[in-house]
């Protein structure tokens, strides 16, 4: 078998996105897994090495030569960056996560290193494959040195198992045992009337038992040269307390810290679990029909074209079509749509849908790795690498927080006693209290958790968000631009009237249907649907689509032009303007006008409500942009109370308009389109939202937020989830800072003792973690 190659081509000199669009239309996307990246003008595809590859290159060259541009194709160097994901089991200390990340970034040959604390994963991209192996070995060493208990292994492709379920019972048992063991010498020391020296020894034993894990971790960090580690500071603080004679205090602080850590671990685990439950949309196994037998296969091993039996209550494991049976299916975990959908033989079904009532046989159309669930899970997991500005800010803040607190503590221990001529021990004690609150733990844990929760919750409701940055930016955006056809309107055109001059209506419709045969535009779908008869493709001799204008085709031996007014004007055709309301398609045969077809589209039922809701949610301006004629556009704009509209805009002009808006606004510009003919605009806007049928590859590829069904109400949901996420995140930040600053002030003034400081500090972390999970409890709008 020939090796399958993934190639990337760079098109130099190609600077019009329309040309790229044309290339895409002419090449068959499906055959080669063709992906076009409008930002970099890259085309990538998967093809068999050898003659198939050479032919494809020739073919692309042919297409390109038909354009008037001089375009050179470069093959991108095959030495590609290589990435790997490491799963770090039992990553419980968030501050360590940040340390691991920055250490790994410093390894030579590392292009990118992003830690995903929520999933306990580390994504590494190395400059080349050769580098990768070395980088991985060094990374594992770093992880071991910072988090000795962690278990590192490489993620296997296709499997998204979560490996971090390290029994809750374990940590509770361990903590309780430690506390009981430490209590024995402590109680002996307190209740027996012992010699001072023996008493001190017992306190020391108790302290060492309760502080064992902190002390071992601290010594390890010190040997690494890291003195700002939370464990180190905790150790210094408690040993300090010991020295000034506060034995009980030292032991109590360690004990509280230990219990706090335990609760924090449990809380993080719990919220991780509830998020991954949200994402529990895949089915690991498929019951595959082979002959008479049913065999259970891992979903990842099921071939395209297999027959899979899905019983009531089961999830559909792979994308496919219904082969046998009919049933109601629950699509909510993928589309967010709460009303069950009825499917019968021939209906398309996506993985993740749940069969509600009767047995179905599905014929798979995709491999597991290409199926919708895999894509969604991958997307949501990768989303954590695109961090929101708030998250980046917290990371930076965390880096300076500890040194500042420690420095202040030092000053506090030294200056006031000298200036005020007081005893050192008072001020040292206060300074030591500073050290126990010097970890920014509450922030570094709860903020990423909050964003991850928001993204996970959104995905469960049929809104895929590709990064925390988009979630945060969407919340702040003030202008939303909508495409008309297929976005604000249903895109399901109906023929309202056929006006003819030279030929009869049936003949006109026939030519129109033939000309539109290859087009994927909603207009084409309407024409083909009303024609109904079979199409003999041999009669289509030539076909060319002009985006935003219409189509030119040779059918049999006549030249057909079908499209809008501009298309007629461009070709200098004398036509009779149709006055009816609706979108008008003018038709010319051999450059002579023969008639027009009036088609009408319906505004989506929810559109008006959505626009007014968005305005209530802080969107100042709603704009519409369409290739359709002015009269249709203004009617829709009036009906929906849209603030501004652009009509008769060609696709490349849409790009220009968006570019200008993005350039001239300091707020983020949102564009909502259908993802099929709007890809360049989606890519260029700050936040591209595509509305489309679930699972459309083009839509998922080109946009930043994907709405998994056609319902505009999901945009309102997305905005609300974004607002809620941001509110919770900021609550946590404000609360944590408030408590910490208060503790610091009170400690400096001597109003609280050290164990209260620890208690407050671990309490904040806990509350912040629990608060972050509140995002998942938002009520669903369905
Ligand atoms: P919108 O911006 O509303 O999504 P388009 O840019 O896709 O609209 O199309 C703009 C106009 O171009 C349509 O209203 C129609 O008049 C014409 N047009 C586009 N594609 C076709 C087609 N396949 N057949 C006929 N006319 C077309
Ligand atoms: Mg459109």
Question: What's the arrangement of secondary structure elements?
Answer:
Blueprint: E1 4-12, H1 17-26, H2 29-32, E2 35-37, E3 42-48, H3 51-65, E4 72-75, E5 82-89, H4 94-105, E6 110-116, E7 121-126, H5 129-146, E8 151-154, H6 168-191, H7 196-223, H8 230-243, H9 247-278, E9 285-290, E10 293-298, E11 307-310, E12 320-324, E13 327-330, H10 332-335, E14 341-343, E15 348-349, E16 354-355, E17 360-364, H11 372-383, H12 389-420, H13 424-436, H14 441-460, E18 463-465, H15 468-476, E19 479-483, H16 484-488, E20 494-500, H17 505-516, H18 522-531, E21 540-546, E22 550-555, E23 558-563, H19 565-570, E24 583-589, E25 592-600, H20 607-616, E26 621-625, H21 630-640, E27 644-646, H22 651-664, E28 669-673, H23 679-684, E29 687-691, H24 697-702, E30 705-707, H25 713-749, H26 754-773
Helix pairs in contact: 4-5, 6-7, 6-9, 7-8, 7-9, 8-9, 8-13, 9-14, 9-26, 12-13, 12-14, 13-25, 13-26, 14-25, 14-26, 15-25, 17-18, 20-25, 25-26
Q: Explain this structure to me?
A:
The protein folds into five domains: 4-79, Alpha-Beta Plaits; 82-154, Alpha-Beta Plaits; 168-275 and 386-449 and 725-777, no CATH class; 285-382, Calcium-transporting ATPase, cytoplasmic transduction domain A (Distorted Sandwich); 490-602, Calcium-transporting ATPase, cytoplasmic domain N, CATH 3.40.1110.10. 49% of the residues lie in helices and 20% in strands. The strands form six sheets. It has a seven-stranded mixed sheet with strand order 18-30-29-28-19-26-27, with helices on both faces. Strands 10-9-11-17-12-15 form a six-stranded antiparallel sheet, with no helix packed on it. A six-stranded antiparallel sheet has the order 20-25-24-23-22-21. With 782 residues, the protein is of the alpha+beta class. It is built from 26 helices and 30 strands. The two termini are 48 Å apart. The structure holds adenosine-5'-diphosphate and magnesium ion. Residues 483-485, 516, 519, 521, 523-524, 548-551, 562-564, 583, 585, 626-628, 651, 677 line the site of adenosine-5'-diphosphate.
């Amino acid at each position: 078998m020939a090796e399958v190659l993934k190639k990337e081509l760079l098109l130099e000199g190609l600077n019009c996105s329309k040309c790229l669009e044309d290339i895409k239309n002419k090449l068959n996307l499906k055959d080669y897994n063709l992906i076009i990246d409008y930002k970099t003008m890259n085309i990538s595809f998967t093809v068999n090495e050898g003659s198939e590859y050479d032919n494809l290159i020739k073919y692309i060259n042919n297409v390109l030569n038909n354009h008037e541009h001089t375009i050179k194709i470069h093959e991108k160097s095959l030495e590609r960056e290589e990435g790997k994901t490491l799963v770090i089991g039992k990553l419980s200390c968030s501050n360590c996560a940040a340390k691991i990340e920055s250490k790994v970034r410093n390894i030579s040959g590392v292009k990118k290193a992003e830690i995903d604390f929520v999933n306990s994963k580390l994504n590494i991209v190395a400059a080349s494959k050769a580098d990768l192996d070395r980088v991985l070995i060094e990374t594992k060493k770093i992880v071991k040195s910072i988090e000795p208990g962690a278990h590192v292994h490489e993620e296997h492709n296709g499997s998204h198992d979560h490996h971090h379920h390290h029994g809750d019972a374990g940590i509770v048992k361990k903590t309780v045992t430690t506390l009981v063991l430490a209590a024995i010498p402590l109680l002996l020391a307190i209740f027996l009337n012992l010699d001072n020296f023996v008493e001190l020894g017992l306190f020391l034993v108790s302290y060492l038992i309760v502080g064992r894990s902190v002390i071992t971790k601290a010594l390890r960090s010190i040997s690494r040269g890291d003195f700002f580690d939370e464990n180190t500071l905790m150790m210094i603080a408690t040993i300090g307390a010991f020295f000034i004679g506060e034995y009980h205090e030292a032991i109590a602080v360690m004990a509280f810290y230990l219990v706090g850590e335990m609760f924090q671990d449990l809380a993080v685990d719990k919220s991780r679990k509830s998020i991954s439950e949200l994402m529990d949309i895949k089915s690991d196994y498929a019951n595959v029909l082979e002959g008479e037998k049913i065999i259970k296969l891992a979903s990842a091993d099921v071939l395209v074209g297999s027959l899979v039996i899905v019983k009531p209550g089961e999830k559909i494991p792979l994308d496919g079509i219904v082969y046998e049976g009919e049933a109601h299916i629950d699509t909510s975990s993928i589309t967010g749509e709460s009303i069950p959908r009825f499917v019968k033989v021939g209906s398309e079904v996506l993985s993740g849908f749940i069969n509600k009532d009767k047995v179905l046989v599905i014929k798979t159309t995709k491999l597991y790795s290409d199926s919708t669930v895999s894509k969604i899970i991958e997307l949501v997991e990768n989303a954590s690498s695109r961090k929101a500005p708030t998250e980046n800010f917290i990371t930076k803040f965390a880096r300076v927080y500890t040194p500042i607190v420690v420095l202040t503590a030092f000053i506090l221990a030294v200056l006031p006693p000298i200036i005020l001529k007081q005893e050192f021990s008072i001020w040292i004690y206060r300074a030591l209290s500073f050290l126990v609150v010097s970890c920014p733990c509450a922030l570094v844990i709860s903020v990423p958790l909050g964003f991850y929760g928001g993204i996970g919750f959104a995905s469960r409701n049929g809104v895929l968000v590709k990064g925390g940055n988009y979630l945060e930016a969407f919340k702040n955006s003030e202008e939303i631009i909508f495409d008309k056809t297929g976005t604000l309107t249903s895109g399901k055109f109906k023929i309202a009237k056929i006006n003819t001059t030279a030929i009869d209506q049936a003949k006109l419709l026939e030519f129109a249907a033939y000309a539109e045969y290859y087009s994927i535009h909603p207009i084409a779908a309407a024409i083909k649907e009303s024609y109904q008869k079979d199409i003999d493709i041999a009669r289509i001799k030539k076909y060319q689509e002009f985006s935003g204008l219409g189509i030119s085709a040779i059918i049999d031996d006549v030249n057909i032009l079908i499209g809008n007014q501009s298309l007629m004007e461009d070709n200098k055709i004398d036509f009779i303007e149709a006055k009816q309301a609706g979108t008008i398609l003018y038709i010319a045969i051999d450059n002579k006008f023969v008639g027009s077809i009036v088609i009408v589209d319906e505004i989506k039922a929810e559109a008006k409500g959505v626009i007014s809701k968005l305005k209530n949610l802080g969107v100042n301006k709603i704009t519409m942009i369409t290739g359709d004629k002015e009269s249709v556009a203004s009617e829709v704009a009036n009906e929906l109370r849209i603030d501004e509209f652009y009509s008769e805009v060609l696709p490349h002009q849409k790009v220009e308009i968006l570019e200008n808006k993005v350039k001239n606004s300091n707020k983020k510009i949102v564009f909502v389109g259908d993802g099929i003919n709007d890809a360049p605009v989606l890519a260029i806007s700050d936040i591209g939202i595509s509305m489309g049928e679930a699972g459309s590859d083009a839509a998922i590829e080109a946009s930043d937020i994907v709405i998994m069904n056609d319902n505009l109400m999901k945009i309102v949901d997305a905005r609300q989830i974004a607002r809620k996420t941001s509110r919770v995140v900021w609550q946590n930040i404000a609360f944590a800072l408030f408590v910490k600053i208060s503790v610091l002030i009170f400690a400096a003034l001597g109003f609280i003792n050290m164990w209260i400081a620890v208690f407050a500090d671990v309490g904040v972390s806990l509350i912040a973690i629990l608060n972050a999970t509140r995002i998942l409890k938002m009520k669903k709008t369905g």
